[in-house]
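Thread amino acids onto this structure.
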């Protein structure tokens, strides 16, 4: 974030085959949570993230990410 790096504990995480979903409380705004969805393939993963009010609701901001294993 523009406010620097942060750490957070996952509130929920689940896996189904090669797909993962997770939710964590957003440490920089106590009224918000981040929802993650990712698909894993071999040595890489791609997914989306969504900042939203705690408990669900309309997305306030979101984006995508990719990671790979070296």
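Threaded sequence (70 positions):
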């Amino acid at each position: 974030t523009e406010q620097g790096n942060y750490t957070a504990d996952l509130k929920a995480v689940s896996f189904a085959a090669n797909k993962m979903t997770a939710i964590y409380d957003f440490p920089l705004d106590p009224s918000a949570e981040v929802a993650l969805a990712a698909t894993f393939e071999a040595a890489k993963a791609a997914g989306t993230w969504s900042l939203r009010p705690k408990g669900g609701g309309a997305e306030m901001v979101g984006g995508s990410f990719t990671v790979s294993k070296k």
